[in-house]
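Q: what sequence does this backbone want?
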């Protein structure tokens, strides 16, 4: 019996229209375009504006565009997984809400939270369902409204994050295409360096937690940077070595877009020239679970069937991992 693999057969992404530039941020906090560009490489980020809008609205646009682009009926989708750290609400799952908004009625759906590694973890989870032979069409969407958990009075974190969503359609293939291998890691001890202090079951929301501004991203930047720059590069190199891949075999590294210095370090460790590294952090910032599909969507017209991609991410928790992927189609 031929091996069934999960292949990406379509991709779409969506970002809100409003752009928050470094110049505008410099009017809100003590920062500057030069300071931000030097440290993280971000020029602007897209922000979802409007009352009552959340991650499901971002995800809805990405999924709706994906269905239209691939000519796929919502009725044939078997499963949807939404990777997010900014769900619309504690429950129901944001994936359930997106499904309802786009008319997906014959699928089950759930959320997955692995911070900035969420899209990779969700992609491999979906692939495991495809590989059973029972599931034929699965959507994986990374959607985060990071502006909802960003403290715009904190000069160290507010330049980092933007809002976006990216979605892929996964289908089975018997060809040597799709998800070929993966390596994932977690280290829960990293939670003290990157987390949200309140709002969970340990420290529920109260007047005190709100007044103390404990519902926003808290990060010890230097500690996170040190862990990320080593581990994201290490896991990308590890998956290359395990699959006997050389730099010349790889079409692109698709790295999580958190910090330009981390991206550059990962590419160098893999022996890749800059032109083989997907980068769009300057225009979008860190959109958490959306960064990797957003990158692939922007570079889609440069990809061809059989291209080898190495996906790599590092996120709060800590979570990190890499996927070896063979692109499954030529530009539509």
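A:
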């Amino acid at each position: 019996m031929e091996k069934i693999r999960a292949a990406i057969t379509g991709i779409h992404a969506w970002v809100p229209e409003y752009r928050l530039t470094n110049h505008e941020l410099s009017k809100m906090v003590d920062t500057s375009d030069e300071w931000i560009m030097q440290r993280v490489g971000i020029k602007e980020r897209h922000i979802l504006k409007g009352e009552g809008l959340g991650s499901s609205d971002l995800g809805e646009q990405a999924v709706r565009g994906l269905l239209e682009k691939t000519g796929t009926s919502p009725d044939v989708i078997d499963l949807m997984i939404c990777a997010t750290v900014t769900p619309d609400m504690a429950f129901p799952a944001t994936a359930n809400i997106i499904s309802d908004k786009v008319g997906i009625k014959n699928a089950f759906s759930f959320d997955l939270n692995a911070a900035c590694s969420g899209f990779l973890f969700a992609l491999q989870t979906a692939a495991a369902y495809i590989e059973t032979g029972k599931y034929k069409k699965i959507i994986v969407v990374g959607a985060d409204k990071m502006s909802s958990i960003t403290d715009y009075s904190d000069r160290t974190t507010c330049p980092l994050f933007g809002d976006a969503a990216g979605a892929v359609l996964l289908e089975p293939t018997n060809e040597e295409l799709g998800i070929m291998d993966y390596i994932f890691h977690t280290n829960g001890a990293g939670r003290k360096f990157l987390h949200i202090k309140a709002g969970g079951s340990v420290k529920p929301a109260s007047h005190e937690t709100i007044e103390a501004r404990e519902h926003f991203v808290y990060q010890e930047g230097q500690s996170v940077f040190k862990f990320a720059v080593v581990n994201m590069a290490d896991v990308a190199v590890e998956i290359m070595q395990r699959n006997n891949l050389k730099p010349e075999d790889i079409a692109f590294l698709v790295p999580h877009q958190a910090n330009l210095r981390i991206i550059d370090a990962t590419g160098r460790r893999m022996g890749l020239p800059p032109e083989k590294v997907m980068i769009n952090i300057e225009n979008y910032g860190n959109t958490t679970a959306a960064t990797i599909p957003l990158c692939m969507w922007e570079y889609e017209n440069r990809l061809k069937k059989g291209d080898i991609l190495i996906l790599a991410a590092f996120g709060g928790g800590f979570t990190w991992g890499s996927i070896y992927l063979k692109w499954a189609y030529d530009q539509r």
